[in-house]
Each structure stands twice: as C-alpha cells, then as structure tokens.
Amino acid sequence: MELHLPPLATVCAATARPFAAGDRVVSRLVRDLATGALARFDVAEAASAGFAVAGAPVCQWVQVFKARTSDADSARLLRLNAENLFLTLADPSAPPAPENARLIQFLALVLERKKILRPRGPAAGRSRQLYEHARTKQLYEVPTGELSPEFFLSLQEQLGVLVGGK
Fold first, then answer.
1. Does residue 129 have a pLDDT over 60?
2. In what order do the strands lie in the sheet with 24-31?
C-alpha cells in the first residue's frame, strides 16, 4: 500500500509563517467532499486549535519540523507505505488522534504479519498492545479492540481514502 503525498510544508497553513527547526507541526489529511481529492495541511501546533478546513478529516499526526537536506530525501519521504504511515501515526512522542486508533491497530496487524513489528504483550491497563519495531527496537503502544465486521467496515472508508478509492 503506497500513498503519494506532498512533503511537509515549510510554512504554516494557518499563519503563513515559516517553520523553524524544532517546531512541532500538526499534519492533517483531509478529503474534499466534492471531488474526493486528498489534501495535506501542515499547521504549527500552537495555531492548530483554531485551524479548520472544509472536508472530511482522514487522520492527523504531530511531528517535529526539520529543514530539508536534499531532493533525494524528499523523494523518499513522498512514498508513504504501511510501515511509514504506522511509524508516523503511532509516534510515541505525540499522542495519537482518536480517529486514527482503528487505522493504527490495523497497520500494526499488517506489519506484525510482515514481521516488521513484534508483539510484546499487553501494555499497562490492558487496553493497549505493546509492539516492538524490528529494525529500530522502538516500542509502540497500540489500541486494542475487537476485530469484528463492524471494525473492518468502519476502517474501509478510511483506507479507501488513503489508497485512492472512494
């Protein structure tokens, strides 16, 4: 599963101010209801509460802004595969958005099957499963839920938007 997105913007979509190295940036994927097109909006974390755009939110994540180093790196970052999407959405340094919980759980299952993630048992409170990323040894807490037909039906639209379906 690959998705082509524009790279992280260099200016805030809400304030039009350039990002500085170390700024926390909220990235949002939004689907235009009229055309079905997927758009990315990067907003400074301080301005994100008051920022609203028309469309259906698909997911959001927080990342630290780093200045781009080369065109080769930006081309690599444009390809968003299942592993990159999981690592971005489940980043332990930023709490996941509630609308991303199902997608994170699904991606963890896909990556566990590919042996990219290793299950390490339930996390404290037993409402989360602990996974270890095989390459980096980073631990991720993934929300748990029942894998019912309703789970997959609710996930179907979100995945359809990400891979280009309706």
1. yes
2. 38-44, 24-31, 56-64
pLDDT band at 166, cuts 50/70/90?
A: very low
DSSP 8-state assignment for residue 144: -
In three-state form (DSSP H/G/I as H, E/B as E, the rest C), the secondary structure along 91-143 is: CCCCCCCHHHHHHHHHHHHHHHHCCCEEEEEECCCCCEEEEEECCCCCEEEEE
Computed from CA positions of residues 81, 17, 48, 23, in that sequence, does the dihedral angle turn out positive or negative?
A: positive
DSSP string over 4-68: E-PPPPSB-TTT-PBP-TT-EEEEEEEE-TTT--EEEEEEEGGGSTT---SSEEEEEEEEE----
* Distances, alpha carbon 88 to alpha carbons 27, 59, 60, 91, 149, in Å: 10, 11, 9, 5, 26
- pLDDT of 4 above 80: no
When pLDDT is averaged across residues 90-107 and rounded to a whole number, the result is: 82
User: Distance between CA 53 and CA 42 in Å, rounded?
Assistant: 12
3-class secondary-structure state, position 166 = coil
